[in-house]
Structures are given as C-alpha cells and as structure tokens.
Amino acid sequence: MEIVICPDAVQAGRLGADAITTLIRRKPDGVLGLATGSSPLGIYDELARRHEAGELSFANARGFTLDEYVGLATEHPETYHNVIRKDFVNRVDFADGAVRGPDGLSDDIPAFCRSYEEAIAAAGGIDLQILGIGTDGHIGFNEPGSSLASRTRIKTLTKQTRIDNARFFGGDIDQVPTHCITQGLGTIMAARHVVLVASGHGKAEAVHQLAEGSVSAMWPGTILQHHPHVTVLLDEAAASRLQLSDYYRETYHAKPAWQGL
Ligand code: F6R
Fold first, then answer.
1. Which of 119, 168, 181, 214 is the most buried (most CB within 10 A)?
2. How far apart are the C-alpha atoms of 85 and 74, rounded to whole Å?
3. What are residue 113's phi and psi, to 5 degrees?
4. 127 DSSP 8-state letter
5. Is the CB of 183 under 6 A from ligand 1?
6. What is the pTM of this model?
7. Cα–Cα distance measured from residue 17 to residue 258, given in angstroms and rounded to the nearest whole number
C-alpha cells in the first residue's frame, strides 16, 4: 500500500487524475470503478479539465459505479446514477451506456447483484477502482462487520453513515435511505489498481486503521492491506494520525520516477 501525503486535496486530486490519465492513454477502453461522494471530486474536476483541454478522451472507456441507494426515485438528484453523471460522466465523452451502476429499484436485488458481477467480469474486470473511505472505515458501502470476501449485495447503512450523508439530503437523516447495493470487498479486491482518496480530519482515524491497523471486518478498508497495488492519496489532515507519516513522505520523495503510481 503506497501512502502519498499531499499538501492539499487539490494535489491529491491531480495525482488521482494522473493515474487515470496514464491508464486511459495506455488502454483507451480501460474499465474504471467510480466512487461518488465528496472525496473523488478533485479527481473528476481535474479529469474534466484535461478532457476540455483536449488532452484526454473517454470515448472508448467504460465504468462501473461502486454503489447505489435502494429505493430512491429515478429522478431523485441524490441517486448515485445521477450524481456520477453530474460530477463526472456528463463532463467528459463517455459513450452512452458505457458507465453502469447498481439498480436501486430492482425488484429482484439478489439477481441484479449477480448480473452486476457478471457485467464487470464480461468487461474484463476493473482496471482502476477509485475509492473514498467512510469515517467508520467503510469502502463502497461495506460497513463494519462486512464479510471480507463479499460480492455485490444489499447492505444496511450504519447510523453514522446516514448522519455523514445527511448533508446531501438537506441535513435530514430521515431522508437518507437505510439500504444500498454495493460492490463487495471481494469485488473491490479484484480490481487491478485501487486508488483511495481521503481528506479532512474526519477521515484521520479511518485512514490510520486502513494503513496501520489490523485487518478486520470492524475496519473494512483494512482488507486493502492484502491488495498488491493500492495507492492512498491524502491531504495533511487525513494523514494526521498516521504513525509512520515521516517514512511515507521519505519513501514517496525518494521514489524512482519510472515507478509511477
Ligand atoms: C461512495 C462510497 C462511499 C464514500 C464514503 C466517503 O460511492 O462508496 O464509500 O466514498 O462514504 O464519502 P465522502 O467522499 O462523501 O466523504
């Protein structure tokens, strides 16, 4: 797991965008795993800027979103289907239908979840998965207690996650759905490269556990310690509880340029 401590979230976003730019230039039909929420916005803003500047095209790329609320109406602005379009997909040139997401209105959720896994496999698997992390350590919506081998399925959101996400629902926790469909930890682990981005003091404990805690379902992101290629992009505040922060800084600064991210 490579930990990169950036001066701020803008720089973290640029590095995340660099990783995706490198992938899409090498493999124009690359498959992206897309997180929603605040954390990846810096990455999406920078990718949209590069696209607008004519530097990067997603015309042949494909994407799968990580998760979706269950039960929100199709036109609700906070479905992750709508959020990822507003924040990223509609700002670049993905082909119609190239970015898919879980169907939170499916009337057969287990069957849908199986079909989502099959669709990811049929696309050749995810080349680069972008992740945020919850204050309780969730990745995707794999809340504490999730099976470390889980695949796409329905989950119940913790109260903490609903409190954290109430800001997207007018501050009213009762408007935040109780259930979601999320790629599982096993699904995320199958991605070839995982780029996790976190900023702010609120994420500092989850980031410390992610990188330095014991692997445990209590901090679901810790499963990434078993992944061979994880890049963690942090601002100073999110890095503030790391025990080995000096070592991570030295390692990154001394890194041979040819290694990339
Ligand atoms: C979103 C997702 C979640 C978020 C996490 C952090 O698709 O899967 O794991 O990444 O809840 O949310 P933000 O980035 O809003 O702090």
1. 181
2. 13
3. -60, -40
4. S
5. no
6. 0.97
7. 17
**Closest approach atom of ligand 1 to CA 165:** 15
Please indicate whether residue 63, judged by its CB atom, sits closer than 6 Å to ligand 1.
no
Residue of 125, 127, 129, 158 whose CA lies nearest to 66: 129
C-alpha distances in angstroms, 37 versus 25, 50, 110, 171, 208? 26, 21, 25, 15, 20
The tokens describing 190, both together, are 């199958």
DSSP annotation of 91 reads G
Asked if 185 and 216 count as a contact pair (C-beta separation under 8 A), the reply is no
Ligand 1 pocket, mutate which of 43, 78, 85, 141 (most atoms under 8 A from CB): 141
pLDDT tens figures, 146-203 = 999 999 999 999 999 999 999 999 999 999 999 999 999 999 999 999 999 999 999 9
Residue 138 known to be catalytic = yes
Residue 200 alpha carbon, nearest atom of ligand 1: 16
**138 Cβ contact list (under 8 Å, min separation 6):** 144, 146, 158, 161, 220, 221
Counting every residue, how long is the chain?
Answer: 261
25 Cα–ligand 1 center, Å: 27
pLDDT tens for residues 95-148? 999 999 999 999 999 999 999 999 999 999 999 999 999 999 999 999 999 999
* Angle in degrees, CA 108, 189, 67, rounded to 5: 40
Q: Is 142 in the pocket of ligand 1 (CB under 6 A)?
A: no
Q: Is 71 in a helix, a strand, or coil?
A: coil
Query: In what helix (H) or strand (E) does residue 153 lie, and over which residues does it extend?
Result: strand 153-156
